[in-house]
Specification:
The protein is an alpha/beta fold and 128 residues long. The chain has one domain: 3-Layer(aba) Sandwich (Rossmann fold). It is built from five helices and five strands. It has a five-stranded parallel beta sheet with strand order 2-1-3-4-5, sandwiched between helices. The longest helix is centred in the C-terminal third of the chain and has 14 residues.
Length: 128
């Protein structure tokens, strides 16, 4: 029996966090959700995560900083970064750092699911 990929959702906005989690579960992924990067970093099972979907702007630590911290501790996870404040400089920095997908809100459910599938399939190697 194939293992269902586990996707972690990190977003400080509870309604968006739950909506994202529900969408991914409806698409066939297993999910776990956290209201802060700190909560995710303290979770002892984070190495079981196949993909991380995180908001960019959160109190205390951005989604990009979360990814960079995971990379620095050799715990990197293929990551999808979502934002309501798209910025081309941030997008470029994120992609160079290894973020698999940078989605601007609003995005379609299909866009998110495709980004997650791509992130899982391609792992941590940045696209050219």
């Amino acid at each position: 029996m194939p293992v269902t990929p586990l996707v972690a959702v990190v977003d400080d906005d509870a309604s968006l966090r739950h909506a994202t989690q529900n969408l991914l579960e409806a698409a066939g992924f297993s999910t776990v959700a956290f209201g802060s990067p700190k909560g995710f970093l303290q979770w002892p099972k984070r190495r079981n995560v196949s993909c991380l979907v995180t908001d960019m702007r959160m109190p205390g630590m951005t989604g990009l900083e979360l990814f960079q911290q995971l990379v620095a501790t050799d715990d990197a996870i293929p990551t999808v970064l979502i934002t309501a404040y798209p910025d081309e400089t941030v997008r470029t920095t994120a992609r160079k750092a290894g973020i698999r997908c940078y989605l601007s809100k609003p995005f379609s459910p299909q866009q998110l699911c495709e980004c997650v599938r791509t992130a899982i399939a391609t792992g941590l190697t940045p696209k050219s």
